[in-house]
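Below sits the subject:

***
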Amino acid sequence: MQLNTIMLQAAGAAPGGLFGAGAGPIFLMVGMFVVMYFFMIRPQAKRQKEQTKFANSMNTGEQIVTTAGIHGRINKANDDGTLQIEISRSTFMTIERSAVSMEMTMAYRKKADAAAGITTPATTK
């Protein structure tokens, strides 16, 4: 007997395989969800948690950059979740804490520190 005939007979003996005929698509969908969770949902939740922690830790006098690209210094932190920032001499603006961009602010601070010749533990090797 040929090997092909033996394999076809063995496959025909157990129709549907080990788990039945409809289990393949279910495993595929579960696998896709697991991959999507670890590559999309989990990192986004982690970034959101870091952004919230950053927004709540800002203090008066810090230089910030908003998501719209406005640079300013925090003049006053209000109780209602807003910040009063000074964007130029005697020019104030009230913004939401959530409008401060963590990535843009950190990049601005890193660039300002490099220009001033200050090295931080995060930038030294």
Observations:
- The mean pLDDT is 80.
- Helices lie at 3-13, 23-56, 102-116.
- The chain has three helices and four strands.
- The domain at 54-113 is CATH 2.30.30.140 (SH3 type barrels.).
